[in-house]
Amino acid sequence: MNSTTKKTKSQKIFVLGGDGFCGWPTSLHLSNTGCEVVIVDNLSRRNIDNELEASSLTPIYPMSTRIEAWKEKTGRTITFHRIDIAEDYDAFLQLIKDEKPDAMVHFAEQRSAPYSMKSPRHKRYTVDNNINATHNVLCAIVESGLDIHLVHLGTMGVYGYGTAGMKIPEGYLDVEVTTEQGTRIPQEILYPTNPGSVYHMTKSQDQLLFQYYNKNDRLRITDLHQGIVWGTNTAETKLDDRLINRFDYDGDYGTVLNRFLMQAAVDYPITVHGTGGQTRAFIHIQDTVRCIEIALKHSPAPEDKVFIFNQMTETHRIKDLAHLVAELAGGDVAYVDNPRKEAAENELHVTEDLFLSKKLNPITLNNGLLQEVTKVAEKYAGRADKSKIPATSTWTDEQQPGIPKPL
Ligand code: NAD
Ligand code: USQ
Predict the structure, then answer these.
(1) Which residue windows does the record flag with biased composition (Polar residues) (predicted)?
(2) What span, in angstroms and rounded, lies between the C-alpha atoms of 185 and 388?
């Protein structure tokens, strides 16, 4: 790897999807390190809240209030452009030409697996939005003629979770093929994907788009295969109530550990899907923003292949997390029918050399941090709508929603 090390300070960075759960704290963090941050977002996540009649447990302020509060607290300026990057290619391209960013961080996709499986309309929306968004970003970078480093948020889930005890490498796999003449030819291929939802399938597809534009146009791309993000606050979002981050807990957008912590806080049975033997990769939101800063500093050189890094800090079994939360915050654990089609039990071993080698001192699950998230959940418990907690999206018509039976 011939990465060039750049200071992120004074870089101009587009944060695509900068109004979202990962994008907002990343925007603040990069702004705090001295970068000029331009957020591009179509606010579709806020519209999906309206559609689902569910909202973040924490109150999310309008974008103009968020940006004003940041300026007031730090003196720093973040700008915002409301553009649908999947639909409005011309406006997006013009913005790139006008602003000439050094790098883009791309979070702007529909990111919920259950939402992507709700109906044919949701499947088609997720594919149209995610694939067009990623392709438009790549096409616009080429058309602009600018040298822009693209950092994309991908997911560990592209691999499925049945890795038969093998350690998932960082993106690539060395294989050997034998020709008909018996010659053995070594090759490096993308680690094969095995997506478990339409959403994860779009992320698998993104990888091919990156590989192609890297090969054809020498685009400099880093794809971060992130695990499940937990937590809500970062050093910057804690500066003011108006800067608070999302805390999704509903059956479509709430991710598992945050859901468990919220459920314990509002005295709702902790909803383990199936046996809870699923093992998943996790990362705290504070480490998400630090990893992105590291990735921006270590951009690929034009001759490099796509950099692919696993962005997670630890793995846990779902049922272990449920019992940990029940002990810490009180509450009952309910084993509910699994609304998804996924392996009931799996092991997961992940290579994570890049971030450790770049001195990420990872945050791992500890009681202090779990309690901090529980306190946020308790503070806003009055805003919780318990009817939105059950996971009602099923992968097939035969499956049952994940609704706890009366205790
Ligand atoms: P989010 O839904 O909170 O944020 C996504 C943002 O992108 C939203 O603000 C939305 O309005 C915007 N957006 C979506 N489509 C757009 C479009 N066509 N044009 C402009 N803006 C658009 O999601 P998140 O949790 O912040 O996730 C961000 C990225 O990180 C996703 O790509 C997701 O795949 C990845 N990721 C998230 C997690 C997690 O646990 N949250 C874990 C691994 C990877
Ligand atoms: N689960 C429960 N109970 C719940 C909710 C979930 O047992 O109440 C289980 C699920 O069945 C699944 C696991 O917990 O086995 C993880 O579910 P999740 O909703 O927390 O995570 P997932 O659907 O995988 O998606 C989330 C983000 C997505 C990101 C992905 C990273 O929404 O954007 O890509 O985590 S990864 O899992 O590595 O693919």
Answers:
(1) 390-399
(2) 54
- State which residues form the domain around 330: 4-385
Q: What is the CATH number of the domain that holds 82?
A: 3.40.50.720
- Atom 42 of ligand 1, nearest CA residue: 228
Atom number, ligand 2, closest to the C-alpha of residue 158: 39
- Give the position, in ligand 1's atom list, of the atom nearest the Cα of 47: 11
- For a mutational test of ligand 2's pocket, the pick from 228, 260, 392, i.e. the residue with the most ligand atoms closer than 8 A to its C-beta, is 228
User: Does any domain span residue 394?
Assistant: no
Q: What is the ipTM of this complex?
A: 0.99
Q: Lowest mean pLDDT of 145-149, 255-259, 271-275, 353-357, name the range.
A: 353-357
Nearest ligand 2 atom, CA 157: 39
274-319 pLDDT, tens digit each:
999 999 999 999 999 999 999 999 999 999 999 999 999 999 999 9
What is the average pLDDT value for the chain, to the nearest integer?
94
Best residue among 42, 47, 111 to mutate for probing ligand 1, ranked by most atoms within 8 Å of CB: 111
* Nearest ligand for residue 17 CA: 1
Are 15 and 105 contacting, i.e. CB atoms less than 8 angstroms apart?
yes
Q: pTM of the entire structure?
A: 0.96
Cβ-proximal residues to 200 (8 Å cutoff; 6+ apart), any chain: 113, 155, 157, 158
Phi, then psi, of 385 in degrees rounded to 5: -115, 100
Q: Does residue 404 lie in a domain region?
A: no
124 occurs within a structural domain:
yes
How many folded domains does the chain comprise? 1
Tell me the ligand closest to 320's alpha carbon: 2
Identify the burial level of 318 via C-beta atoms within 10 angstroms of its C-beta, where 0-12 means exposed, 13-18 middle and 19 or more buried: buried
Q: In three state form, how does the secondary structure of 259-283 look?
A: HHHHHHHCCCCEEEECCCECEEEEE
Q: What residues line ligand 1, using a CB cutoff of 6 Å? A: 17, 19-23, 41-45, 84-86, 107-109, 111, 129, 133, 153, 155, 226, 228-229, 246, 255
**Dihedral over Cα of 370, 374, 375, 380: its sign:** positive
Report if residue 398 sits inside a domain: no
Which residue, by CA, sits nearest to atom 3 of ligand 1?
20
Q: Which amino acid is at 82?
A: R
